[in-house]
Amino acid sequence: MSVYRVSYRYANSLMQLAEEKKIYSKIVQDAELIYSSLDSSKELRSVLKSPIIKSGEKKKILTAVFESKVSNEAESFLLFVVEKGREDILTDIFKEFINLRNKKEGILRAKIVSALELDDSIMKRITSKLEKETEKIVQSTFFVDQKIIGGFVAELDDKVYDASVRHQLNLLRKKFAEEISI
Amino acid sequence: MAEIRPDEISAILRKQLSGFENEVDVYEVGTVLQVGDGIARVYGLSKVMASELVEFPNGVIGMVLNLDEDSVGCVLFGESALIKEGDQVKRTNRVASFPVGEKLLGRVVNPLGEPLDGKGTVQFEKYSPIERKALGVVQRQGVKEPLQTGIVSVDSMIPIGRGQRELIIGDRQTGKTAIAIDTIINQKYTHSEEAKKYGVKPVYCVYVAVGQKNSTVAQVVAKLEESGAMEYTTVVSAPASSPAPLQYIAPYAGAAVGEYFRDSGRHSLVVYDDLSKQAVAYRELSLLLRRPPGREAYPGDVFYLHSRLLERASKLSEDLGGGSLTALPIIETQQGDVSAYIPTNVISITDGQIYLEPNLFNAGVRPAINVGISVSRVGGNAQIKAMKKVSGSLKLDLAQYRELEAFAKFGSDLDKSTLRTLSKGARLVELLKQGQYVPVAVEKEIVSVYLGTNNFLETIEVKDVKRFEKEFHEFAELKYPEIYENILSTKELKDDTVALIKKAAQEFIEKFKKS
Predict the structure, then answer these.
(1) Which residues pair with residue B129 across a beta bridge?
(2) Nearest chain B Cα distance for residue A22, angstroms
(3) CA–CA separation, B28 vs B93, rounded Å?
(4) CB contact under 8 A, B20 and A171
(5) Looking at chain B, which residue has its C-alpha nearest residue A168?
(6) B176, CA 20 to 30 Å: which among B155, B330, B366, B443?
(7) Residue A143 belongs to what domain range?
(8) Same structural domain, A152 and A64
(9) Is B44–A157 a contact, with Cβ atoms under 8 angstroms apart?
(10) Contact status of A149 with chain B (Cβ, < 8 Å)
(11) Residue numbers of B annotated as active site
């Protein structure tokens, strides 16, 4: 079965469990914490993926890392995943969980790149403009990349709003290459 | 040398820039997960359509073939070395399509519509999707006009009609491409004023080269140009060096051009040279996309690959303008094995086949058509009456000759009638021999076949038959030009014309010098 289908199934069960036990907001917090620690620590990911390390060891490691930081339900979910031998896709499961949460609450993550550091008012204006455009709650993260020369690029999932000077120049280059007819 | 002033350049630049909009551009993207062997798996692109074109960095274009749960499988029309993991992929919102229009005539393009002939960008009317559903029953009518190939044996015994699909099949080096090229060259006549006078409508041609050597394609183009056939021909080329996906879509792109002419009420001829190479390219692609292999490792839908292509050949009903698209697919067999997978498939799809044999080719019978097993299932209705009349006995005579030929090799004593059949057959075979790139006009074909089947060649030595034919036509054109005119205008062989031919033949046989 594809990784996607498996991780969706696990994530969906976790979501249902959280709703049933009415600890939704706590689990969401835990999931974000677990996802970010998995995402940032390559060592932890490779330990989980390694077929040499026994599942007992993996359980011990996970308990040691998350014991005091996450709820009991989240911890037992982690151990359950290891027991089922799916610890290699733990990152995908939590990624899928966060996706499910975003879909449920209507949250859209946006990556906004600008050539210069933006001040707060502009950041807010861009975000609110995007919220209006998409009719969803937009959570923006801002990056600076001088390669785009000027303007900004906003990436929301698959969609890109490109108002950068680099893109304009590329378009211009294409236009000249295509239809120079004198 | 002409001078260009700087202010002229700025004026042009200003003009170009005037249509340029400076707005936020919205597009959809995905990320490359995996790339290699001409295939890319892409994450994202959630709204992409099947067979939509997508844009990779470095100007590489791809086509979406697999839509999976969490990723999209694309084939690349460029080098996979230019793409790396994590690259951004853009949607174009355009299903794989091909530029069509009047200006495509005379051009050599690749299956994406990019020029290969160095004559600048291709001007076109519109994009036409390369995959189109074939027409239904209501939109069609029976094949009724002939498509003259200019090859005597084909036009007389295996006639092709406008809107037909006739397979050209044979081993390598048996002259398959030659037949197709001769047919294209012969369409030059249909664009002339004379043809217009006799009610023959022009045929626009498309030559699709799949998996061929670039040198071969260049030769073909040069030949077409030399004979003035490029004016009404488009060449779509996906040479052997191009990626398999391009070779796979090339025939569909060619069909799109043909359909443009068909749908505007005109006639078109599309040559697919050759479909066995396209099947091989499709097999490569399917295996890389991990589709399950079947017989000879071809995927399960290889029959559909060819049937949906050839089904697009059609003759439109009068309500839709009566245009037509004739398809001449070519298949290369290995050691004459027509029972291999792809040949049997295509034989069953088409309305007949022209079978070429290496033995005949080596024996000097060129075009090396085996008339015994070549057939045309619908072309007979399309033949003009005069040709139908003279060619009736030709096939029979040749069949009798072939039967006795093997027999006569034993060298036993033969009776008079057998000898007669043999000598007539030998002369007919000689008569049907024809050089490359010299298509014959239909009225001359009719007269030649008439002379052959009505025993006018009895007294001529076999080696003189071709010279006799040539000189007779020269003679008749000078002294009895009405023979040809009558045939062309009435499309029939009336008694007075027959009498004229007889008279001319008797007169000429007396004069003819034996070598």
Answers:
(1) B97
(2) 30
(3) 9
(4) yes
(5) B22
(6) B443
(7) 106-181
(8) no
(9) yes
(10) no
(11) 377
